[in-house]
Amino acid sequence: MSSENRGSARKVVHVAVAVIRGEDGRILIARRPDDKHMGGYWEFPGGKVEEGELITAALNRELKEELNIEAGHFQKLISIRHDYSDKSVYLDTWWAEDIKGEPRGNEGQEIKWVELKELPELDFPPANGPIVTAALLPTRYMITGRFNAAAELLEKVGYQIEQGVELVQFRAPWLDEVTYQHLARELHHLCKEAGASLLLKGGSELLVNTWCDGIHLTSEQLLQEETNWQSSSRPDQWLAASCHNQEQIDRAVSMGVDFITLSPVLPTDSHPGCEVLGEAKAAELTERCPLPVFWLGGMKLTNEAKLIDSGAQGIAAIGAFWSQVQ
Ligand SMILES: Nc1nc2c([nH]c(=O)n2[C@@H]2O[C@H](COP(=O)(O)OP(=O)(O)OP(=O)(O)O)[C@@H](O)[C@H]2O)c(=O)[nH]1
Ligand SMILES: [Mg+2]
Questions:
Q1: Mind listing the pLDDT tens digit for each residue in 135-156?
Q2: Near ion ligand 2, which residues have CB within 5 Å?
Q3: Confidence bin at 271 (pLDDT 50/70/90)
Q4: Whole-model pTM above 0.90?
Q5: What is the ipTM of this complex?
Q6: pLDDT 10s digits, 164-185
Q7: 41/48 Cα distance (integer angstroms)
Q8: Which parts of the sequence bind 8-oxo-dGTP (predicted)?
Q9: What would the pLDDT profile of 104-133 be if each residue is shown by its tens digit?
Q10: pLDDT in tens, 199-243
Q11: Sign of the alpha-carbon dihedral angle for 269, 275, 279, 284
């Protein structure tokens, strides 16, 4: 057995992967040649990073070699470490935009532009699932805060959707189940009209077989053994979970959760006195997590660019979205 194939001791291949987004929002994918690893699958173009090479240089080198194009702008999307039976890869994945040149398959490979929403239907290598999820998710995840009347809730969420929010979690632990369900229906109607998705957070009886766009589990619900959340939700529904440490992240991964929130990254008014992770620890946990991670707790919209550079999907917040005066 060669040294490359000795289980966890084997070399991890650093791969630069580009999710190429054209001006019309479509994504350029390519078919992997049959004679290559994962041959026949669709891929996001890219290839191995050379010794000492900067990631953005590697991305543009691969784009030139494989497609005869260059990207003027890169933004971190997600990193995935995946162990295939014969090889371990670290897929260092970036949005590539501001495309210069007309793409062609330099290696004779089939290429095509597809809509974002088509990605889940296509056959990608097994490591690519979280890349597709990350590409589909927005960078902002709004969590509802305190409200007195239904009108206030609907107005605040409606306002944020107008500002560009596409993903909303309805959290209202002080309400009884009947009132929560009623408001959730109203909120879902509002979100649906505007093209946003609504996730529910609450007691387990509320979440099983939900009619909504998805559910968000607390870390306690995540660790409970009784419910198989994967099988109680449809493939087109989001399954998200709150994580605070490595053990909970491992559980989320093994359960097949789509994405997580990691908290509290910084001190927050909604959970005073909670022990915070700090940005360095959050970045470390995010780097090792093969799922999209929203940072939560004390996050401001002005932190967004920095935390995306740290590998996070984006910001989850109550305060940053809720406190804004209209
Ligand atoms: N480019 C790319 N590689 C991927 C994806 N998903 C995935 O598992 N991989 C794996 O990443 C590894 C490296 O990618 P590659 O074969 O494109 O490397 P390369 O362009 O340098 O090719 P080469 O081997 O001809 O030098 C392969 O084992 C491939 O199976 C993906 O979406 N895009
Ligand atoms: Mg390649």
A1: 999 999 999 999 999 999 999 9
A2: 47
A3: confident
A4: yes
A5: 0.97
A6: 999 999 999 999 999 999 999 9
A7: 17
A8: 32, 37, 43-46, 128
A9: 999 999 999 999 999 999 999 999 999 999
A10: 999 988 888 888 999 999 999 999 998 888 888 888 899 999 999
A11: negative
Lowest mean pLDDT among 8-22, 251-265, 268-282: 268-282
Dihedral over Cα of 81, 27, 24, 164: its sign: negative
Judge whether 70 and 63 are in contact, CB under 8 Å.
yes
Listed in sequence order, the residues at least 6 apart from 253 whose beta carbon sits closer than 8 Å to its beta carbon are 289, 290, 291
Q: Residue count of the chain, please give it.
A: 326
Atom of ligand 1 nearest to the CA of 131: 32
Residues having CB closer than 6 A to ligand 1 are: 13, 15, 17, 36-38, 43-48, 62, 87, 89, 91, 125, 127-128
CA distance 134 to 293: 9
Q: DSSP H helical segments within 176-325, as ranges?
A: 177-194, 204-207, 219-223, 229-232, 246-255, 279-288, 304-309, 319-322
Residue 167's contacts (CB-CB under 8 Å, 6 or more residues apart) are: 137, 138, 140, 141, 142, 196, 197, 199
- Nearest residue to 94 via CA among 15, 29, 14, 19: 19
**Nearest C-alpha neighbor of 289 from the set 167, 100, 134:** 134
The full DSSP string for 200-221 is EES-HHHHTT-SSSEEEE-HHH
Domains of the chain with bracketed CATH: 3-119 (3.90.79.10), 140-322 (3.20.20.70)
Which residue has the least CA distance to atom 19 on ligand 1?
A: 47
Which residues are documented as binding site for Mg(2+)?
Answer: 46, 66
Pocket mutation for ligand 1, best pick of 13, 20, 28, 43 (most atoms within 8 Å of C-beta): 43
Per-residue pLDDT tens for 33-53? Answer: 999 999 999 999 999 999 999
Strands 42-43 vs 46-48: parallel, antiparallel or unpaired? unpaired
Q: Which residue has the least CA distance to atom 20 on ligand 1?
A: 47
Closest CA to 143 of 240, 230, 255, 257: 240
